[in-house]
Amino acid sequence: MTVKELFDSMDYGPAPESAAEALAWLVDMGDRFGHFIDGAFTAPGAGFESKNPATGEVLATITQATQTDVDAAVKAARKAQPKWEKLGGPGRARYLYAIARLLQKHARLFAVLETLDNGKPIRESRDIDVPLAQRHFYYHAGMAQLMEEVLPGRAALGVCGQIIPWNFPLLMLAWKVAPALAMGNTVVLKPAEYTSLTALLFADICTQAGLPRGVVNIVTGDGAVGEMIVAAEVDKIAFTGSTSVGRRIREATAGSGKALTLELGGKSPYIVFDDADLDSAIEGLVDAIWFNQGQVCCAGSRLLVQESVAETFHARLIARMDKLRIGNPLDKCIDVGAVVDPVQLATIRGMVEANTAGQVHQADIALPAGGCYYPPTLITGLAPSDRLMQEEIFGPVLVSCTFRTPAEAVELANNSRYGLAATVWTENVNLALDIAPKLAAGVVWVNATNLFDAAAGFGGVRESGFGREGGWEGLAAYTRPVGKAKALKPVESFSGSGAPADPIDRTAKLYVGGKQARPDGGYSRPVWGKGGALLGHVGLANRKDVRNAVEAAQGAAAWGRATGHLRAQILYYIAENLSARAGEFAHRLDAITGARHGAREVEASIQRLFTYAAWADKYDGRVHSVPIRGVALAMNEPVGVIGALCADEAPLLGLVSVMAPALAMGNRVVLVASEPFPLAATDFYQVLDTSDVPGGVVNILTGSHAELAAPLAGHLNLDAVWSFSSTPLSKAVEAASAGNLKRSWVNNALARDWFANDSAEWLAQASEVKNIWVPYGE
Amino acid sequence: MTTATTERIAQLPQVSEPRNPGMALDLDWVRGVQANTSAIERRAATLPGRRSVKKDYQAAWLLRAISCIDLTTLSGDDTVQRVRRLCAKARQPVSPEILAALGMEGLTVGAVCVYHDMVAAAVEALEGSGIPVAAVSTGFPAGLSPFHLRVAEIGESVKAGAQEIDIVISRRHVLGGDWQALYEEMRAFREACGPAHVKAILATGELGTLRNVARASLVCMMAGADFIKTSTGKESVNATLPVSLVMIRAIRDYHERTGIRIGYKPAGGISKAKDALVYLGLIKDELGDRWLRPDLFRFGASSLLGDIERQLEHHVTGAYSAGYRHAMG
């Protein structure tokens, strides 16, 4: 076409970024890659081809790791770890800084290679992925520098196994590697088999940075290699990927003592209220669901729009879709690139074709011939009961439904098994700040979407996983308290045949919904003292009692909305009432345990209640320093309903230690009392009864830990499960928790010093950090 | 209201588009408008990274930009000779050799924009070129002279041969939320323009908020403006991408509801060829190709042309150019 013709047509024309440098790097590396283990690349072995999804061209051959490779990588990481940790924060900071600098120096090479390998538009890899990856290394260089000062009493976990997805290959690597290294861990990382190339280039960068060998190890391959890493002698698994794989990892690591963080799928709501800037909300959707072809775990894929503006909004959105440009991802003038692989393309197509509900609108734009392209798609008029409103599509497909009121918007938004992110559009600050905390999500964006930064934690709730990456809250995932715990021996109950210690029978019941309740099964067991005297009977709770207790706890959600001040007052009041009966409790404890430290345990319990009463209105959130004009509010929210198998060895203190921090943070609890010594707990509910604790906030069951562990940990309406039982149940509890991927915290058969003050850990376990991004400006 | 025009000048919207008849002031619509500043700024900030125009396409786009320039001189020291010089540049904005190399002989700018006293000189200098003369009016740039004089000024300029009138609105009506007064003022200006087409200068740098920009845009369109324009060039903040985004979204909204296409003119501060490409991309994506014509889009600029000329020479010769190689205006 002549210039004159172009002057008339005013088309964009091609604007390709050159792939020459990236292809030259591949050639330099021989187009075949081994693994990066102990500071060097291994010889390439049998493997698979990595292809450019936009063209189908083979980019390189990648080696499928064997068990020997994984073992070698873990061994190298293990060997390197003590020295790396001992190097100290400031020493590690220099390496992280060097990596950040090198990522900057080779920014375009990384961006082009990422786009070739993944199919995402070069704009995204160049302007978003690579700069954010650099930012994570800079930020965590700072965290390494400050670690000793700001995290006293925390140590590295050791060797971290990290398994990352194909949608943000380099960025997810940075999210995983930077904090791990900063805190003194070494890593064995597996990139996704579709997209290994930037991880291998990163290995090259590690060498250039002079990183000690063995600190970063990269093994390539498919899910089988992932399974080998999960099974390996590592101290932690960090996984980002699908919920189904995350669930399998949870089951596989159950009871192993390996720390685990999971960042899984989502079906994030995108809520548009009638007073929103509709044009900006539509532009936000472009960045929500057509960013990276919709292959984003936190994609705003579920549009909820207020009825009164729905028609206008949809009409404008459809018009906007037609303006999207889809094509060669290396073109600098492209909005939507290629889906990562033909397999993913077939999945997306299959899901959309199987849907018969609503109206399907596809962008009226030509798709490039060949390559894995799918048109931007909107499906309006869906109901929550439609499959596409519930299932993650992981493609450029937006589904939509309307709502009438803010309350209904929240209800619809939360009507999901997922809870990763949410977006709220409204010009009303009252509405935005009311809605954001009500959404079941780890991240909420107000009048914006897909904002990320190293300083703000990212991660989800429900089946979107647990743990946070980034920010202060992300460091917990890569550290542990210093010190070594002793093994916990099972605590046996006493047996006997003696006469009742007190001739007047006292009937201990379960405590559910603020009322004493007989066990559903109608069975009780005798409780004997050390000398064989009959101290009383306790009910044997069964799975139906667990059901009732969780239901009562879920019904007491108002506790989570009560002010910290009110929760503090009630905790103080519990302490006051316990103190009034201190002598009696001490005596009782001595009788049931046969020991003589009852008074000390009661005193410690009172102290504990005071401690968490103190914390109830002081465990403040943060305002993260993110690089936008706005705030990222990291709010500490209650986890929800926490079920706990309480310590056997400290019948009162163990129960109070679980209950107090949980209540302080606004959770409700289902507590299974010490199995051998349950009577302190059943006495304790009388204290609760007199202390203005709302019904359902605390529920106490007695019975067999082994029997109750599975129904409790497997309950799909329980948000977290803790086990401090002396019965070795950690594995069973964590395996059962995989059902709804609830958070778990188990003792792994290690003892805990119940008299120690370790509020930080308890408060963190009793809360979720929600990051609410509020950009502002008028 | 007069809609007829006697001269066939492609740059004027009334030639190919039905002229905006205006409509009754719809306050519900005006007050319901929202503009989220941070979201608009984010969109504007990422625009240059989202669109790229290269090689022949870029040359074509830059030539298109030239065809949309209101070549402007608005100085206290303007003289007839100075205006003649500018008009000569308007007729031949790029050296004939470069235009020939690009196959674009005969390209001119969109219009020449001057103060009233220079209208006659400009009309004379542009005679036969088809390039319209635009006059800034109504007590430009502050718009605070007596109302009847402002209206009369329009009439004088039209009489002197101006085919486009760039009026300034009373900012106080916007700042005071007196939409009725703004509407009536604009109506009166439009009336006074007769066949000349009217551009409403909002002086966005003085309106305080983007929401005000959006509302003022709508009110001026409802009152019959043919074009809406960002700035006089005399405010401390002139055309910006966020302001442009707000104004063209208002234009899109108005078109969706009434079917009438309103033109857009960013003015002041656009001096680089690269900026011009970003603006054209913005218009193309947000409003559509139809708006990429001088009858619906203008740049109010004086130094932009020089940078475009250098880029075009680079395109033709492959060597980076120098300013002195191109004729000044």
From TrEMBL, chain A:
A Pfam family this chain is assigned to: Aldedh
Positions annotated as active site in the UniProt record: E263
Keyword Oxidoreductase: yes
Signal peptide positions (record): none
CDD domains: ALDH_F16 (cd07111)
Record domain Aldehyde dehydrogenase: where: 48-480, 533-745
Keywords: Oxidoreductase
Domain of life: Bacteria
InterPro entries hit by this protein: Ald_DH/histidinol_DH, Ald_DH_C, Ald_DH_CS_GLU, Ald_DH_N, Aldehyde_DH, Aldehyde_DH_dom
GO MF terms held by the record: oxidoreductase activity, acting on the aldehyde or oxo group of donors, NAD or NADP as acceptor
PROSITE patterns documented for this protein: ALDEHYDE_DEHYDR_GLU
Keyword Secreted appears in the UniProt entry: no
Family: Belongs to the aldehyde dehydrogenase family.
PANTHER family given in the database record: ALDEHYDE DEHYDROGENASE-RELATED (PTHR11699)
UniProt-recorded name of the protein: Aldehyde dehydrogenase
Organism: Seohaeicola zhoushanensis
Automatic annotation (TrEMBL), chain B:
InterPro entries the UniProt entry points to: Aldolase_TIM (IPR013785), DeoC (IPR011343), DeoC/FbaB/LacD_aldolase (IPR002915)
Biological process, per Gene Ontology: carbohydrate catabolic process; deoxyribonucleotide catabolic process
Pathway the protein contributes to: Carbohydrate degradation; 2-deoxy-D-ribose 1-phosphate degradation; D-glyceraldehyde 3-phosphate and acetaldehyde from 2-deoxy-alpha-D-ribose 1-phosphate: step 2/2
Signal peptide: none
Species name: Seohaeicola zhoushanensis
Sorted UniProt keywords: Lyase, Schiff base
Catalyzed reactions: 2-deoxy-D-ribose 5-phosphate = D-glyceraldehyde 3-phosphate + acetaldehyde
An example Gene Ontology CC term for this record: cytoplasm
EC identifiers of the protein: 4.1.2.4
Family designation: Belongs to the DeoC/FbaB aldolase family. DeoC type 2 subfamily.
Name used for this protein in its record: Deoxyribose-phosphate aldolase
GO molecular function (one): deoxyribose-phosphate aldolase activity
Highest taxon of source: Bacteria
Matching PANTHER family: DEOXYRIBOSE-PHOSPHATE ALDOLASE
Enzyme class: lyase
